[in-house]
Amino acid sequence: MAEKDVDVVVVGAGFAGMYLLHELRKQGFSSRVLEAGDDVGGTWYWNRYPGARCDIATTDYQYTWDPELLDEWQWSEKHAAQPEILRYAQYVAKKHDLYSGIDFEVRVDKAAWDDSAKKWTIHTSTGETITCRHYVMATGCLSVPKDPDIPGTDRFKGNVYVTGRWPHEGVDFTGQRVAVIGTGSSAIQSMPHIASQAKQLVVFQRTPNFSMPAFNGPQPPGRVARLKADRVAYQNEARMSPTGVPMEMATVSALAVSREEAFAMLEKSWRKGELLQIGATFTDVGINRAANEVVCDFMRSKIHEVVKDPETAETLSPRGHAYGTKRPCMDTNYFEVFNMPHVRLVDIRKKPITSITETGIDFDGESIEFDSIVYATGFDAMTGAIVNVDITGKNGLTLKKKWENGPLTYLGLTTVGFPNFYMITGPGSPSVLSNMMVSIEQHVEWIRDALVDMRDKGFETIEPTAAAEEDWRVHCTDCADITLFQDTNSWYMGANVPGKPRVLLPYIGGVGRYRRICTEAMQRGFLGFELQGNGKQQLNPGPVRLMQPDVEMMLDVMATLELPPIEAMSPAEARGFMDASATMRAPGPDVGEIVDGTFPGADGDLEYRVYRPASAGPHPVVVYYHGGGWVLGSHTSDDPLCRDLCKRADVMIISVNYRHAPEARFPAAVDDAWAALQWVAKNASAFGGKPDQIAVAGWSAGGNLAAVVAQMARDNGGPKLKGQLLLTPVTDGSRQSASYIENGEGYVLTKNVMEWFWNHYASAEDRKSVKASPLLAPSLANLPPAMIVTGQFDPLRDEGNAYAHALADAGVPVKRLQARGHIHTSITMVDMLPSGQSVRAHMASGLREFFAGN
Ligand SMILES: Cc1cc2nc3c(=O)[nH]c(=O)nc-3n(C[C@H](O)[C@H](O)[C@H](O)COP(=O)(O)OP(=O)(O)OC[C@H]3O[C@@H](n4cnc5c(N)ncnc54)[C@H](O)[C@@H]3O)c2cc1C
After folding, report:
1. 141 C-alpha vs ligand 1 centroid, how far in Å?
2. What CA–CA distance (Å, rounded) separates 601 from 580?
3. Closest among 501, 507, 502, 500 to 480, alpha carbons compared
4. Measured from the CA of 79, which atom of ligand 1 is nearest?
5. Handedness of CA 714, 719, 723, 724 (dihedral sign)
6. Given phi > 0 = left and psi -120 to 50 = alpha, else beta, which region is 778?
7. Segment 787-802 mean pLDDT
8. Which atom of ligand 1 is nearest the CA belonging to 425?
9. Considering the entire predicted model, what is its pTM?
10. Which residue owns the Cα nearest ligand 1 atom 26?
11. Over the Cα atoms of the chain, what is R_g?
């Protein structure tokens, strides 16, 4: 007799539910696993259509938790087919006695949280009621086939098949007239098989998809050898990779090479026959439309090479969506099908289906009779199976209601208002954008560890905090915002299901990063969770500190380069290093005109560079001071940023040089900065600038100089400045705030580098001068309006914020922006880090506001 009250109920016996059952038993938890199908395997149980197979090489798509399996199970192909993967699932279930823990042909219909008992009550299709402390949805991301939204589907009297619910006995289409509706992955895999049997095949296509040949065959010897040589290292590489598959990562932009070179590189990736390799050929396929278009062009050229009729080839060629923003497919002879004389392609965007009839399909004035219709119309992905169950959490809140504007989760694992409720590969986790075997194992292990930890400490419930859930939503949005996904109507965005809210459902920040975040949340005492039980409470509101995804990617790349620390170099070496680094950066946007020249500094001539907008002048003028810790840099070292601000704000930027330490120590840089401002004020008109519209701006040490000269202008009779834009400025050399401790290491500008800068620039005594530490000024009143931008992960964050607050306290109009997830240097990395764009857009509008109305 099955237990009616258990520690854990798990819904679903696919790879997720199976592994979870194994781990729960190992840890001594009682459990019930409830599965709608009559066997294990989930996806590989239901999707029995001909040609169904794994797109990820099966070497990588297998369990890692039982190392013996690697020797016991030999995959017959690189991309194993559905029957073999199902046999694998059955083999594992038998080996580990999982069948005895699973109830088959049981559908969970309803689940409700009982807040007084601190338990879930689960109702099943068999009329059973089960109570449990913890409730896990291992229901799969692609387990609910989407109903075709075509009129008349119930009228057809012939055979109807749905790829995701294929008959177990198989289907023989020999001699039949067959319609296939849909051209997603399932259609692409099954079409060659159906075409080889059918007498006539008509394919109804709404959106063409990118697909590449799988080049299926034996398992890839290189991968297998690497796996066997060092299983742990290989699997760790997969776990920490962006997609869950060990892969060579790109180092070059698609726009940095000629088209011929780009195509040659893509051809190499293509030949590998690996799903994720094409997209990983260049660094910017996922984030830059022009770079992505290079890949699209290549993929389309391949379709035209295969499909003989140019019109059909064009109809099959995706246009209007970026590569990778719809699930790319792998095929074996898919496009070749359209060279067969009995196969016809109908573009239903041009010739819409008007109705399914009793005998066939009516479209665009034509009627065709069929014996069979195959619906390959996809899934209600990621949320479908979860909200299919009527789940009620605390205070009568249903999950359906909570998610009506899109799913809200913390880490894609849990959701506020639903204690002790977990989702495996839920929305907000990498899930369908990853090798799902890796993601499934990670989630199972996280849930297992959470349950064990709670039991050990005597807690009964766990629930994320609203703040953590909101932080996670924002982070997921930050990640999505830098990609091209949002512009495509895809099932990743929920766009294939009428009425479903449009949000990017999976987390796009990468498998490795995601794992680190989840691990950190648990290791730091369940950050973002509230735990309760036995009269105890543990609330650890966090925050999980989340970096902008592109910034983190850049730091990851830098870490692999093992760059020498700046503070171990001489100033000359550091300058050489910085110059060399500058040659690798993106150039920034074009502006109207650039003019170089010299001006009289405090102790001899110095260089300047003018950036003039393309619009007609005269323009407001911004005197700009470069960053580099008073030791490094020049009037051209922030060139991309100056171009960007000039273009965005439509102002003239005059970037001026100043003498550098240690050759010229404090106050030489201040004297030159001041001389530059005087000179610009005098000569603004000659440059085509407005002499009464001058502001100062600067980054880092340059922000320090801009703040200092703004004070000097106030105290020395002008010029009257319209504003000061300070980007991550140094404002106080006399103290070290919390941000020095939080962000002192690992974010490019380190505590040690900053100390190296200060030591070269100013003595301990000099640092106390207001010309070195503008925050120490006795009064900040009557200074020009300010915009101060700080980075969350910058050692200088707190002193920038302190200056903003002090200015505001002194009555100065201040706009403060703490750039979420940014480091000291990232906002200046124009055209390299998309997440900096919105920050620079704010900076530009700050500049415009300085000059507005004048
Ligand atoms: C055709 C196809 C090809 C794929 N190819 C790849 C690939 O190449 N690489 C990759 O990484 N991933 C692929 N996937 C994704 C695949 O879904 C996952 O890799 C993985 O198999 C999911 O396992 P799971 O256990 O999480 O979910 P599933 O395998 O979907 O299992 C969920 C189970 O939950 C059961 N269930 C759902 N709701 C209920 C309920 N209310 N009551 C009872 N039972 C319920 C379902 O019957 C199902 O058996 C593919 C998916 C499909 C559909």
Report:
1. 6
2. 27
3. 507
4. 8
5. negative
6. alpha
7. 97
8. 26
9. 0.85
10. 140
11. 31
